[in-house]
Amino acid sequence: MPPASPAASLITHLTLQDFRTYPRLELEVSRPLVALVGENGAGKTNVLEAISLFMPGRGLRRAELTDMARQGGPGSFAISVALETPYGEHRLGTGLDRPDGETRASRICRIDGLPAASPAAFAEHLRLVWLTPDLDGLFRGPPGDRRRFLDRLVLAVDAEHGARVNALERALRSRNRVLEETPDDRLWLDALEREAAELAIAVAAARRETVERLAALILATRDEASPFPFATLTLEGEIDALVATLPAVDAEDRYRALLRESRPRDRAAGRTLVGPQATDLLVRHGPKDIPAAMASTGEQKALLIGLVLAHARLVGGMSGIAPFILLDEVAAHLDPRRRAGLFDTLESLGGQVWMTGADPGLFGELEGRADILQVSPGRIEPLAVA
């Protein structure tokens, strides 16, 4: 019996209050495809960023929440969406609250008017994947960029992954500080390394599971005629080799021993050298069997789009929820064949897609298939068709 299709949901109403360039915005949409067009700086990406905050983390720009509040505003902001699902309508809200007379601001999350503990709670109702122009250099950039990309892939299927990554970073920072200030405090170091080992193996295992599932899905669904070439994926790192070859308990013991052995070296370096913080995601251009970094700029863009589309399928299959897809300026540098292929694939995925572009002509073939909206500073309205 074929697996059930993931549940498709729509954002039908988006409200922004004092967010970025928007003093107040009430936006209604009705279609699975939404295209936002307008000049650079008009506020298109701000809309995508607002939606991206319904996921753990700092959104698609990775900005501080305080920087998202409108300049000249009260220092707080609010975002809410009306979400139409196969099981009824829900209203989700998030933002930054700054009570009167207080200088500190705090993140707020609400589901159907009730407080939620964290953005991870939104995962019961929606999932998100996105692609932004700053990822165009992913394959040629430093390993840290690919690790952040990898962790976002994991986070879309495991809402608690971000909390584990943050906890691991705190544990390693504490270990580094003890190594610098009181390196002979072996009991304290043992305790910190025990905590770090548990978190490190959990983080590495979640990454490995996601990469293996994604790689298998890509190979099982690859289409040689697709305008977006398939990718092959592997993880490189000492901790990843441990997780791949040992049971979790044995991997924790081995990593704890590595931390203990490397104390002098890590103290001299001022950081922990071995662990998930040193993992790299290796991507190859499948049809050519070459490292992605060696492909042409156009091939890399197409490979990245194919990878994100495959990830959207994985998220839908694993969560049972067709993810919302946010694509910032994705069509600008695609030839007509790839652009048409992209739009057709997006429609087949089932989730609502929000796209931006400066040139309305990029979305001409979507007339009648998408909500095409004109964005100007502080305003969004249906695009007038000549």
TrEMBL record:
Entry-linked Gene3D superfamilies: P-loop containing nucleotide triphosphate hydrolases, RecF/RecN/SMC, N-terminal domain
Subcellular location: Cytoplasm
Keywords: ATP-binding, Cytoplasm, DNA damage, DNA repair, DNA replication, DNA-binding, Nucleotide-binding, SOS response
One Gene Ontology term from the biological process aspect of the record: SOS response
Residue stretches making up the RecF/RecN/SMC N-terminal domain: 11-356
A Pfam family this chain is assigned to: SMC_N
Family to which the UniProt record says this protein belongs: Belongs to the RecF family.
Name of the protein described by the UniProt record: DNA replication and repair protein RecF
UniProt source species: Microvirga thermotolerans
Gene that encodes the chain: recF
